Amino acid sequence: MRFCVLGTLRVLDGSREVTPSAPKLRQVLTFLLLRRNNIVQTTELIDELWGENPPSSALSTLQTYIYKLRKILSNDEVDSFEEILQTQSWGYMLTIDHDQLDLNQFERLLAEGVAALKRNETEMAAKCLAEALSLWRGLALADVAAGNLLSAYVASLEESRLRALELRVESDLRLGRHREVVGELKHLISVHPLHEAFYAQLMNALHRSGRRWEALEVYQRLRATLVEEVGIEPSADTQRLHQSLLSEETTAHPAKLEPQAGQGRRSTAVIERPRHAVRTLLPAQLPPDIWDFTGRQSSINDLVAAATMTEPTATTPPTVLIAGMPGVGKTALAVHLAHLIKRDFPDGQFYCTLRGSDGEPADPGQVLYNWLIATDMYTKKLPSSTEERSKMFRSWCSAHRVLIVLDNAASAAQISPLLPGSEHCTTIITSRSGLYGFPCRKRLDLAPLTLEEGVRLLGAVAGRQRIEREKGDAQSVVRFCEGLPLAVRAAGARLTASPTLPLRTLAARLADPELRLKELNSTDFDIYHSFDLNYQELDPRERGALWLLYLRRSTRFNLKSAAETVGCDIDTSETILTRLVSAHFLRIVGYNGARDDVVYAINELAHLYAEKKLENELAERGTPAEASLDAGETTAIEAPAGSGPPAAPGRLVRRDLRWNN
């Protein structure tokens, strides 16, 4: 069986075409193909198909789509249903050979062409690149409806095609085929009027064909288009090419499209601003770094490499994503990382918090407006729509090397308009929701600090000598903070405010669940509010399941016991638990590779949040005895509405509401 995505979607079984006709089936199959031989989570597929408002039947409908695809891919042979499209923990995996997908062949030929170009084997490079481009049959996935996640993959495919075009034209120019490419390049700049590399190549082709005056006219057309559309001048390389034509130099060459062999970390000299350009201010929007940033060294090394290393075949801008629970230090790490690498981005840095303290996502159109103003763009030239502002920002980024930090992203749909399209710009993203399935070069699920790192951070805030004198109690404080940097800082601030407070006294107060939330709250870290934002994003069924799981006496459970507690089937339970893990109310503490062997645990601080939340909700309902939660009291509550079908009608859950950890 053969699959084609470089154009319209096609599935060929020998000479017979078996491409599914239903739009949703095509969408699911395309997503699985682009993530071939990797697990695609059920939640990702639901997000792709229905966005942020999936129907209540989303899971069962998706399972129907998977069943129909299996029939198509296995040629209705029931025994082989699971061989190609397998059910894995939390999702599905489409397993295909390398040669079955035209995209794999394109990427292989593109890589071979780039390598040949670097070895100065120009004839071979031109052949490989032309063969790679011949696989395309039009716009990528032109007949497939794309949601937020799939749209990002489609944009990446188109960027790869343009990159291959640039390199193939460069090969032809090196081989002296300048006259042959003039017509093609004229067509390309008409289709891509803001793609500067094609203009530079056309200028060279015309100049080498003895049509220097036309080459100069092409430059004027480029400059007029850039100034009128996005308010910027052509890049330094193109301006130098123009100057060489004006001075009748015959050695004009197009700007380099690939790094030199052996090049690793980016050189900040690849794109430089013209010497005569006047800029009073470059965007420098990063918040100040934290002077006592502690730990994370291994993660930092990986992130720096991912954010600054140039890959020979890279056609998309590097993006790193830092995800994690509230208080784990995502923002601090992102800002620290940005300061470490900002010298690699001489044209500035952009920063934006995409979700405010009220939990409302920021409008990407307004973010783009503010950024474009920061680039000295004239206000009257700014379009009103988010889409057009996004195009203008990407056009500006194509001639500049900038670093972008997007903090606390709410969704893929929110950040997609804010991403640059040029491979010399890097984006750092943080998110509480995880953004699973979002394409990025490096993803880090940030873990809490180790005990040693937490004690060092506590010492940096409250005084190292004080911590060393009571190191055992300091370790207890860090444990009760669960290694969350913001919680450790809150504890350190408490110690700083009370110089005579012994650490053993603070540790004893933190050991009391009734006092822990109060003691760890500070102006920078409100545990209750942080988890409340996550809680508000759960749907009624997920909230109901959360209460039923939290009212268990055991804080650890597997998929089967969770399904029995919630009163639903295994598949529904798995979907709900995956959502609660991504919202950081649960964590996975054991996994042996089998679906039934996954062990879940309740996060302790989330446990305390749940106690407080339940106390408030019982008080609002006027529970007898004023919802008192004194030690030893047992209260009966109905399974919350929307929690899914109960295990038995009118099921009551009894639980000592004081968590005795």
TrEMBL record:
Keyword list, A-Z: DNA-binding, Transcription, Transcription regulation
UniProt family annotation: Belongs to the AfsR/DnrI/RedD regulatory family.
GO BP term, example: regulation of DNA-templated transcription
Span of domain OmpR/PhoB-type: 1-96
Entry-linked Pfam families: BTAD, Trans_reg_C
DNA-binding residues: 1-96
InterPro entries xrefs: AAA+_ATPase (IPR003593), AfsR-DnrI-RedD_regulator (IPR051677), BTAD (IPR005158), OmpR/PhoB-type_DNA-bd (IPR001867), P-loop_NTPase (IPR027417), Sig_transdc_resp-reg_C-effctor (IPR016032), TPR-like_helical_dom_sf (IPR011990), WH-like_DNA-bd_sf (IPR036388)
Name used for this protein in its record: AfsR/SARP family transcriptional regulator
GO MF entry, a single one: ADP binding
Domain of life per record: Bacteria
Chain positions covered by the region annotation Disordered: 249-268, 620-652
Species this chain originates from: Nonomuraea longispora
Lineage, broadest ranks: Bacteria, Bacillati, Actinomycetota, Actinomycetes, Streptosporangiales
